[in-house]
Specification:
The protein is α+β, with helices and mostly antiparallel strands and 435 residues long. The protein is built from nine helices and six strands, in the order αβααββααβααββαα. Strands 2-3-5-6 form a four-stranded antiparallel sheet, with no helix packed on it.
Length: 435
């Protein structure tokens, strides 16, 4: 029986029933579940809502404040008054009352342009929230991709091991048949059985790795970690990635770089707010008040009034203990740090892009080499299996050919997986990892 026939029979009798018994989780569905359920994305969305709610002209200090006030002061005093003619008037328990109530408006119309810098800073904070949300989404998409294709790779390796078990079982059957007709020794049967058991042991270890990978992916999807499923069995690689295009996209789209650029812009606006402390502050006040007062002793025992009150208040800072100079120096240092960090982020991004692209290109070529090796190993195993059945090669030679096929299958799967990892990494760095 040819290897291709054995492999097809294995898929039909073993793998297909398992797929039918388990939920098949396509990559697109896994990504959708992660975007809907992932905790980090939910937190980032809520943080962005806070930034959006905070970004308004009122929070920047551009609008007036209107307030209603009520002041009611009362007193009970033992009072003695000396009149102009020298006579005295005395009253124990004299009651006095002053009541004021009304509506007032207070509006800062100029504060050295601080309010405008504050509004621009609020805009930047909102954009930072958007960049952080994008980063959270990209990170989770990347996590899903990496863990999903790790599971695909593990399934492929399990399929290769299962194929080796089918072939080992065929070898055991052949050895037993040859032994029963006196053409092989008992030792050949025992060796074949030992190799079959070794393959089964490897199968159990691989099944454990798959279970662990499923638990990890379920955790990322924020669902029951015991949920059982299978993934598709193919890894497709984008072979058309171009470094210059990735570099250009990363400069304009990488969320970490954009967040750091916004941090620098925010530091610039903070410096403007601090410098505004050198300029005058002008406030307008107005209101409509009602007043009433009562006194038990005095020339006026009762009075009341109502009407408009207004005024203007201007203050010019002259000296505040040198705090203004200190605060400006601190703001300038913080801006300098933001610029340094931005340059550091740019160099780090460029380094990561170069390193990942070099690994991507190497593994892309490696997949082509391993594909050829796998084809050769498959042909070699077909020929070896035929020769083994007619007794023209030794069991050791057959086992070597079988192991070479298994190794070639695993190496090819690993090469495809690593190439996919670097493809995902490059797209994540470029800020265009989507589904």
């Amino acid at each position: 029986m040819k290897l291709i026939s054995l492999y097809s029979l294995f898929l039909l009798l073993v793998f297909v029933p398992k797929i039918q018994a388990q939920e098949v989780l396509p990559l697109e569905d896994a990504l959708k579940i992660a975007l809907e359920n992932n905790y980090d994305i939910k937190l980032a969305k809520n943080e962005l809502k806070v930034d959006e709610l905070s970004n308004n002209i009122g929070n920047a200090g551009m609008l007036p404040t209107v307030s209603a006030t009520v002041v009611n002061n009362n007193s009970i005093l033992n009072t003695t008054q000396t009149q102009a003619d020298g006579s005295e008037r005395t009253l124990d328990g004299a009651r006095n009352m002053n009541l004021t109530y009304g509506v007032g408006l207070d509006w800062t119309v100029f504060d050295g342009m601080r309010m405008f810098a504050r509004k621009e800073q609020l805009n930047i904070l909102q954009k930072q929230g958007e960049a952080e949300l994008k980063l959270a989404i990209l990170t989770r998409i990347s996590d899903v991709y990496l863990n999903y294709f790790d599971l695909v790779q593990q399934q492929q390796q399990l399929a290769a091991i299962d194929t080796a078990i089918v072939i080992s079982q065929e070898r055991v059957n052949t050895a037993q048949n040859r032994y029963s007709i006196g053409k092989a020794s008992k030792l050949e049967v025992l060796n074949a059985q030992v190799d079959l058991n070794s393959d089964k042991s490897l199968q159990l270890k691989q099944q454990e790795l798959i279970k662990t990978a499923k638990i990890r992916l379920n955790e990322i999807l924020a669902r029951d970690v015991q949920t059982d499923f299978v993934v598709t069995n193919e890894i497709s690689v984008d072979e058309q990635l171009n470094y210059d295009e990735l570099k250009s996209a990363a400069d304009s789209q990488n969320p970490q770089l954009q967040a750091q650029l916004l941090t620098k812009n925010s530091a610039e606006q903070q410096l403007k707010q601090v410098k505004a402390g050198r300029y005058p502050t002008v406030r307008i006040t107005s209101g409509y008040n009602f007043t009433r007062s009562e006194a038990s002793l005095g020339f006026v025992t009762q009075s009341s009034g109502r009407g408009l009150v207004y005024g203007i208040n201007a203050s010019v800072p002259i000296f505040n203990g040198n705090l203004q100079n200190r605060n400006e120096k601190i703001a300038k240092v913080q801006l300098e740090n933001a610029n340094v960090t931005l340059e550091q982020q740019k160099r780090s991004l460029e380094s990561q892009l170069n390193s990942a692209f070099a690994s991507y290109a190497t593994n892309l070529e490696l997949t082509k080499v391993e594909a050829k090796n796998l084809e050769i190993a498959e042909q070699n195993l077909d020929i070896t299996l035929s020769k083994f059945k007619i007794g023209t090669i030794t069991p050791i030679e057959f086992r070597t050919a079988q192991q070479n096929f298994l190794d070639a299958k695993v190496r090819y799967s690993n090469a495809m997986y690593l190439t996919k990892i670097y493809e995902i990494t490059l797209k994540e760095l470029a800020g265009n990892l989507t589904f």
